[in-house]
Every structure is written in structure tokens, then in C-alpha cells.
Write a structure and sequence with these properties.
The protein is of the alpha/beta class and about 140 residues long. Helix content is about 30%, strand content about 15%. The chain contains four helices and five strands; from the N terminus they run αβαββββαα.
């Protein structure tokens, strides 16, 4: 995973002058959010479950954007999100940019963006009932 370069003077020297920050307009089929203060990436077991979930809806996990909001959340408004479909796994704190976090496992539409809030992948992995609720929501949406 790439780490941010914080030494701007180094970049100016490397690039020979001004640095122009450009916002990416890249779009992904899906944005997956999670919160893990213990590490930047998903734990292996949760990453494997996410891969199985994505395979189940015919999306390759490498084609989606996965973001740990405990480390970064660069978006100020919903319209800046890099995908129109967002699945949030186990976000404990509220982000003012998002709609209400309840109810879980029911799609919410806000300004053309679709949100699905679910329990953390760790909790889902240990519950047949939650796996079923997630699968039903994903199947009904047909991403």
C-alpha cells in the first residue's frame, strides 16, 4: 500500500517546480468503508470474507475502492465519493457526510448515491443471520 509523501519541498525539487494538486475523478463500481484503528488494512480473515462477498456479486475485489476511515477519509461531501454505491462495514462513529447509520442492511439513496450500512466484517463472519441479511440486501440491489 502506498504511503503519503509529506515532504513537499522534496516533491518540488523532484518535479522541478510547482506542485498542482489534482482531484481524481476516478470512479469505482463500489466503495467499501471499514474502521480498524489497529492497522491500515483489513485483517486477513475479514479480507477473505470481503473477497467472497465480492465474488458472490461478480465484482473483483481489485476493482473496488476499500478505505479504512480510521486512517483517512479525504471526502468532504457525498459528491466527492469515488463510487455511487457505498457499503459501510462496522463504522462506529458518524460521518457528517453520510445519511443516518440506521437501519442496517437496507439500502438508502441520498442524491443518487446508494448506501448500505452493515455490521463489521468480523461480526458478520461469526453470524449466519447477518450473512443472510447482507446477502439478501446485495442480491436485491443487483450491483
Amino acid at each position: 500500500m502506498l504511503k503519503p509523501i509529506k515532504d513537499v519541498s522534496f516533491l518540488k525539487q523532484l518535479l522541478g517546480g510547482e506542485i498542482i494538486a489534482q482531484k481524481s475523478d476516478a470512479r469505482f463500481p463500489l466503495l467499501v468503508l471499514f474502521e480498524n484503528g489497529l492497522g491500515e488494512n483489513l485483517p486477513i480473515k475479514e479480507e477473505e470474507l470481503l473477497g467472497k462477498i465480492m465474488n458472490g456479486i461478480n465484482i473483483h475485489v481489485d476493482s473496488i475502492k476499500v478505505l479504512n476511515i480510521a486512517y483517512t477519509f479525504p471526502y468532504q461531501t457525498i459528491t466527492e465519493l469515488p463510487a455511487y454505491i457505498v457499503i459501510s462495514f462496522g463504522i462506529e462513529r458518524k460521518l457528517t457526510q453520510f445519511p443516518a447509520y440506521e437501519p442496517k442492511y437496507i439500502w438508502q439513496n441520498r442524491g443518487g448515491y446508494e448506501f448500505l450500512f452493515a455490521d463489521s466484517l468480523e461480526i458478520i463472519s461469526n453470524s449466519a443471520e447477518l450473512k443472510s441479511a447482507l446477502w439478501k440486501a446485495l442480491k436485491d440491489k443487483k450491483i
